[in-house]
Write a structure and sequence with these properties.
Mean pLDDT: 78
Order of helices and strands: HHHHEEEE
Low-confidence stretches: none
Number of strands: 4
Largest sheet: 2 strands, antiparallel
Helix content: 40-55%
Number of helices: 4
Strand order of the largest sheet: 1-4
Length: about 130
């Protein structure tokens, strides 16, 4: 069993610790030079964030030019073999469960996969 004086001491220490948190002001914690939420937002939206976004956009643009050049070289080395596109028209109809389906046109490739020629395989065959 806990003695009465020990229980009083624990309660007093707990009360002091809890009340000490109420005494602290936000200036003591954050300081006087803390930015407002509006300033933080504007700095992220228009300040340094904008320069970083421009740099990222430049990097992407420069990289895409490099990637497109490599892709063009690859397409030239491995040309795609012809895969005719078939066009199918579906007339309006009613399904088995009674749902009306309007007419529509769809297109699909004749072959399931696209095939590519090896380099030099179809020279003059176009």
């Amino acid at each position: 069993m806990i003695r009465q004086p020990l229980l009083v001491k624990l309660a007093l220490i707990s009360a002091v610790v809890v009340l000490q948190g109420c005494v602290t002001t936000s200036e003591d914690i954050f300081g006087d030079d803390m930015k407002s939420m509006k300033e933080v937002y504007q700095n992220k939206a228009y300040g340094d964030g904008l320069a970083i976004r421009h740099q990222i956009a430049r990097d992407i643009r420069d990289n895409s030019v490099h990637v497109n050049a490599k892709l063009h070289k690859h397409k030239k080395a491995f040309p795609k073999l012809p895969n005719p596109e078939l066009i199918m028209h579906v007339f309006p109809h009613i399904t088995r469960n009674g749902t009306a389906v309007p007419a529509y046109t769809t297109a699909f490739d004749l072959y399931e996969k696209n095939h590519y020629a090896l380099p030099g395989e179809i020279v003059g065959w176009e």
